[in-house]
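Practice record 12: protein with D-malate.
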Amino acid sequence: MPSQEINGFSMHYREKGTGEAVVLIHGFPLSSQIFESQIEALSSSYRVIAPDLRGFGQSTNTDRFSINSLADDVHKLLSRLKVLPCVVGGLSMGGYIAEAFYKKYPNDIKKLILLNTKAEGDSSAAKDGRNKMIALCREFGSAGVAKEMLPKMLSPRTIERKNDVVDKLLKLMEAQPALTVEHALEALRDRDDQTALLGKISVPTLIISGDGDQITGPLVAEPMQKAIAGSKLVVIPSAGHLSTMENPAAVNDALLEFLKGGE
Ligand code: MLT
């Protein structure tokens, strides 16, 4: 995996293909591995770049971070690679980062892709949940967090029928360093509410949700679609929160149609 020295650490990223750059930002507590299928499918027509965020995957680092600073890391990488402005997409926490990126650098995004994500910040109950998860992480490490999160990350159908996806996701979550998981939980808890940003988004935007997404399902995605003028919503069948792994073919089709079709 190539890397660039940026903002005091070595940011590793997957890269494949040539042409217009499409950047995919992973969720929590994951890595660029969640986009393996999308990188393959899109790279015949696009230059796909999927970073491992600070502390995740191969981007080893122990510093604290915020959603805004992760957006700065991605921006620095893309500016180093000289691909700005470009298409920026993110799944869940990656979507929060894409929104923060848009807010800070609106002229550097050509099109926006918001996968299995939302704009609202954490409610006070959600913040309490993050603090409990931080305590769980300190006691049981990433494996404790992975075990707790797994039933919500995938649709019940995936859990019942796709053992390979369940195993892969569990291993990926368990592999993230406990300190990074803790820092990310703080960053998620303290992130900005971006609801007011939605009405200001003026680039073509694709929103993806899963019909079995228990965290950011259609009930979350539909109001977001209404708030972003001209945006398009695709609800992926047989998919939960990890749509890119649960139904990669349908996600790839939606991405390719959006990227080729303009709006
Ligand atoms: C993610 O998948 O990135 C997380 O579910 C985001 C969150 O917990 O808010």
